[in-house]
Amino acid sequence: MFDFNIDIHKLLQQLTYNAKDPLLFNSGFFLFFFCLFLLGYQFLYKRKLTRVVYFTIFSLYFFYKACGFYFGFILLSAVVDFNLSNWIFTAKSNERKRLILFFSIVINLGLLFYFKYTNFFIEIINDLKLGSIKPLNLILPIGISFYTFENLSYTIDVYRGKFKPVQSFLDYCFFLSFFPKLVMGPIVRASDFIPQIRKDIYISKEDVAKGLYLILGGLFKKVVISDYIYVNYVQYIFDDPSRHSGIECLLGVYGYAMVIYCDFSGYSDMAIGMAKWMGFTINENFDSPYQSSSITEFWRRWHMSLSSWLKDYLYISLGGNRVGKFRQYLNLMITMLLGGLWHGASFNFIVWGGMHGLALSFDKLRMSMVAKLPKSNFLISKLTKIFGVIITFHFVCFCWIFFKASSFEDAEIIISQIFQNFNGTAWQQMFTAYGTIFGIMALGYVIHFLPKSFEFISIKVLSNISMAGRIAILLIFIWIIIQVKQADQVMPIYLQF
Questions:
Q1: How far apart are CA 41 and CA 134, in angstroms?
Q2: DSSP-assigned letter for residue 4
Q3: Which long-range contacts (CB under 8 A, 24 or more apart) does 476-483 make?
Q4: What is the pLDDT along the chain (497 residues), one digit of tens a residue?
């Protein structure tokens, strides 16, 4: 009886929220959770209403396990924006439509501002000696930045007449809480997703193969590459850069560039892959961004769901490129500054966004000048592209220093160490101590620069393997992941946003 009670207690602990071990794709409990979900889904997915109810309940439970009772905010925002969007649609006058839209924007951004930026502005007020306000004890709800943007895009699209609001609250709740993309995106547009909710589900063998490829690839990027490099090297460099030589800091920056890419794109790939297995399509979020030959191309390839959201709902709303060159550059700066602030309540993120805004403005000017020049021959255009990739990559890495560093001082120390205390002769000792880490880092870059055809060939091979073979590959891969997984769960970087 005693053992039975202990087991019940342990089971209840597993089923309830644990702040020290939230439910994420790379957590041990998620495998059990996902397998249980798929088992039930096999029997229900053909019944549309039952499927929606089942999926929504599981999604809300997943969110509860990820962030505790903060999951109530997504229900609150669903209720608010479902009703406001329908009121916008039925409003008789444009003035009334604008007033309701304004109300929606204030509620959504107000909630985001309160949790994410209140203490930031309290700190500014205190630093400027304008007051002495005690910071609030606030915890940022997981995923709030992502589902806030989804809510806003929904109501704005309804206001613009691009999308007719759904009449079923259950459908809207399903869209907003869809668990593969709930915690860290991609940011999904209602106009892309909601039409899929009530359609007949058909999952082809190609869908299964692509889902498997994305899930396994995402796990590998997150657990094997990102977590390993971060825990065993990158965090030491950024925690106290003054203790490390310039070459160590430079490799730490290169390492972080791979860490943040593999961390976020790996999570996005898993979300897209899981959605494929359930018969839903989520748009791609990353497209080998370090292969970009310009900063404009980089932002077409990096966090594509955020980039397109900022373009469609902020940049274009400011006037885009329709208001003259100066205003276009100013609009780019405003968009990227606010994009930086979206990532976090810190001047480091604002500086990071500002540098990208300046680079985008300069790139627009460069492209307008290049367009007037005669076309280069094949060799020159290839060399120009290679040179562009190298320059763009290093500019992005330079900006990552401010994104990752805990303060301006730490960012300045890293830059100073690289340019004033490089100590290139220490490379032999470094490779002796960190050879495995640099090997995995190099592997990450090799995989990143593989041509797109590698993905197509891999998916084709997986689609021709039997279901038993795919299950065997999945189990073997999970076993390998367990062997290399860090003892303590490494929180995804974008979880803080």
A1: 49
A2: H
A3: 477/216, 477/219, 477/220, 478/31, 478/219, 481/219, 481/220, 481/223, 481/224
A4: 445 455 676 666 777 887 777 777 777 778 888 888 999 998 888 889 999 999 999 999 989 988 888 888 899 999 999 999 999 999 989 999 999 999 999 999 999 999 999 988 898 898 887 878 888 888 888 888 899 999 999 999 999 998 899 999 999 999 999 999 988 879 999 989 999 998 999 889 899 999 999 999 999 999 899 999 999 999 999 999 999 999 999 999 999 999 999 999 999 999 999 999 999 999 999 999 999 999 999 999 999 999 999 999 999 999 988 888 888 899 999 999 999 999 888 899 999 999 999 999 999 988 888 877 777 777 888 899 999 999 999 999 999 999 999 999 999 999 999 999 988 888 888 888 899 999 999 999 999 999 989 999 999 999 998 888 888 888 888 888 777 776 566 777 777 76
Q: Residue ranges per domain, the chain?
A: 17-197, 205-496
Contacts of 404 (CB under 8 A, 6+ apart): 238, 256, 260
343 carries an active-site annotation: yes
How many Cβ atoms sit within 10 Å of the Cβ of residue 157?
A: 19
HSE-CB of 155 using CA atoms within 13 angstroms = 29
Q: Cis ω on the peptide bond leading into residue 195 (within 30° of 0)?
A: no
Residue tagged active-site, from 343, 356, 394, 448:
343
Q: What is the DSSP letter of 232?
A: I
* 79-81-84 Cα angle (round to 5): 105
Residue 429 in tokens: 């000792």
Q: Give pairs for 358-363: CB < 8 Å, separation 24+.
A: 358/333, 359/295, 359/395, 360/295, 360/296, 360/299, 360/332, 360/336, 361/328, 361/329, 361/332, 361/333, 363/294, 363/295, 363/296
Q: Could you please report the per-residue DSSP string of 243-298?
A: GS-HHHHHHHHHHHHHHHHHHHHHHHHHHHHHHHHTT---------GGG-SSHHHH
Inter-CA distances, 289 with 293, 302, 396, Å? 9, 5, 10
For 210, 216, 275, 343, 470, the CA distances from 463, given in Å and listed in that order, are 8, 14, 17, 38, 9
Place of tokens 């039975």: 4
DSSP assignment letter at 141: P
The letter for the amino acid at 494 is Y
